Amino acid sequence: EPQSAPSLVFLIRKRPLEAIAESERCVAHLNILNLVILGVGRMLRSGVYIVAGAVAKYIAGPATIISFLVAALFSMLSGLCYAEFGAWVPRSGSVYLYSYVTMGQLYAFVIGWNRILPLVIGTASLARASSYVFDSLIGNHISQALQETFSLHLPYSLATYADFFALGLVLLMTGLLLLGARESILVTKISIGINILVLIFIIITGFVKGDLHNWKLTEQDYKLNTSGSRDIYGFAPFGFEGILQGASTCFYCFFGVTAVATKGGEAINPRRSIPWSIMITIFICFLAYSGVSAALTLMVPYHQIQPHDPLPQAILYSWWLPARYFVTIGTLCALISRLQSAMFRMPPLIYMMAKDGLLFRILTRIHVRTGTRVVAIMSAGNLTGVMALLFKLTDLVDLVSVGTLLINSLVAFSVLVLRYQPDQNLSKNENTEEEIEMPDLDEHPLDSEPEARNSNVLKSLWFPISTIPTRKSGQIVYGFLLMIILSLIVVQWSSQGFSAGSGYTPVAVLLLLLIIGVTVIIWRQPQNPIPLYFKVPALPVLPLVSIFVNIYLMMQITSGTWAIFGIWNCAAKPIFTKKVQQHNQQEKDNVNLAPEKQLLVPISSLSTELAT
Q1: Which of 397, 395, 354 has the alpha carbon at shortest distance from 376?
Q2: How many CA atoms lie within 13 A of 110 on its CB side?
Q3: Where are the transmembrane segments (predicted)?
Q4: What is the Rg, in whole angstroms, of the alpha carbon atoms belonging to the chain?
Q5: What pTM, to 2 d.p., does this model score?
Q6: CB count in 10 Å sphere of residue 270
Q7: Please, which residues have CB within 8 angstroms of residue 318's CB and are 6 or more apart in sequence?
Q8: Which are the contacts of 365, defined by CB distance < 8 A and separation ≥ 6?
Q9: Residues 6 or more apart in contact with residue 432 via CB below 8 angstroms
């Protein structure tokens, strides 16, 4: 027990916010329009040029539009949870910072580690997409040469050839960062403008040159162009399962909602501007993504789409040759500029986690002359380069989706925990109330009987005595972990549990009823009355629905993607274990200090907390 106590303290320790001088405090200056522009610039990912084609050909067909709709609707739920999560910390920052301040060190490490993954993989996917588009522009000479020279005869989760052009792009951007390059607001604005112009041009071209018959393909149309046959045709050739699997992949395109949700400290009237900005941003991006998907599937039958370069090839298929070069060059410019912007966001997170002691301290080294985070930049660049070199674009997109869905689930769970936990300022009053009430319960002889105790427990669950959260009511929310496990079981059995004549149907129905019962019990518990500029409505239903849907969509991802995701998280275990061991050693060294030196540690930490 003496050895495990320091480890437990280390895991649940929270990071106090550093005091900010009045001169350094952010002034509220962002209105709804500013926040929407910021969110669209971050969320309107250039990867849609590739994702729409891959999802349409292999996963959902023309029903890719519905996949984007499903992803957008549940991204809004996650966005609302992000907005409240940011409201608990009165400062602009990141999800990693918010989780460290509110939930503790272990929780922050899990979110930070899985936040690095989407950033790295998303940047690698941009590099790989840029390589595909440039290769198409020059006649596919790069891919042909690389396939002949560096062909990879490895498992299906890896690419067919090593893409050294994508690796070169990543290393070039890494070198620019090491030399001290800064993100240019002008370049970002030009990139967003080019992106929007190209997307509008593609949408207009698709509706002018497209053929509605491509949404109503028959068996004869399919056999004329392919050697196989399908059981389902028309608008949704892969059925409802294809739509949901497509939605899990399309979540990649809505990665970036935190850009708006974490700006509460800089927003004017954040109670109104933050949630409205999130919903408007997601709606605008959905219109862009669905419009591109509709145009693509109208111009080309879904089974003839070129997944690596869909939009320029679709323009060429519609016999409009000059427009193909405009779309290709515009797409390439948008992808490379987005790649440059994405490279700037990885090193700060790695540096912050290392500075907090959750990653290796060597990652905090800064170059004396340029002032750049040298080791953090090189680590992020090398990891991104390896991913861009070896992995297929579709697998990279799925990895981003898995990491994003996991973080969305953790944020929604954090909102539940925080709303039902007792406030630190009220803990003494709650303890006093519990100590006063306990003797009253012991005075009744019936309370000593098991049946009476059970009835009192059930009564306290449905009719809590206190109107403010207590430690007991806070512990009840953690019972929602059971719901997560049950939801996973329901997902595994859903394909057979609700089919006719299946023996799993009663079990699935009982599990769903139990989930509903857990939800009602959580709803009956008192909530924290702390005033926040935004609170998720219909608590706990919306966060629970968000978690359930996120888990369901995660289970639609392929097993190969899950294997890579599991390897990534297994790699985190020795890193965090070593940090726990270092903390325990520091605690032992502190015990061996002289008494006068031991007193300096709590006094200094107390003064820091008082200053904060």
Answers
A1: 354
A2: 15
A3: 58-83, 95-113, 158-179, 186-208, 243-262, 274-302, 314-336, 374-393, 399-418, 476-495, 501-523, 532-553
A4: 27
A5: 0.81
A6: 22
A7: 205, 209, 210, 299, 300
A8: 373, 374, 375
A9: none
Show the tokens assigned to 502: 């299946």
> What domains can be seen in the chain, in order of their start residue?
29-220+232-420 (1.20.1740.10)
The Cα angle at residue 398 between residues 396 and 404, in degrees rounded to 5:
105
Q: SS3 for 166?
A: helix
**Could you give the CA distance from residue 17 to residue 609 in angstroms, rounded to a whole number?**
9
For residue 186, the surrounding DSSP H or E stretch is helix 185-209
Gap between the Cα atoms of 151 and 164, Å rounded: 12
- Helices 393-419 and 95-102, packing angle to 10 deg: 30
Tell me how far apart the alpha carbons of residues 108 and 49 are, in angstroms, rounded to a whole number. Answer: 33
Whole-angstrom distance, CA of residue 517 vs CA of residue 515 = 5
- What are the C-alpha distances in Å from 472 to residues 101, 159, 457, 527, 581? 22, 52, 11, 12, 32
Q: What is the 3-state secondary structure (H, E, C) of 22-46?
A: HHHCCCCCECHHHHHHHHHHHHCCC
What confidence tier does 401 reach under pLDDT thresholds 50, 70, 90?
Answer: confident
Per-residue pLDDT of 270-303, as tens digits, reads 888 888 999 999 999 999 999 999 998 998 888 8
Structure tokens at 241: 């399962």
Q: How confident is the model at residue 507 (pLDDT cuts 50, 70, 90)?
A: low
Q: Please state, as a whole number, how many other Cβ atoms lie within 10 Å of the Cβ of residue 501.
A: 5
In the block, tokens 């950033």 appear at 119
Q: What is the reported pLDDT for 551? A: 84
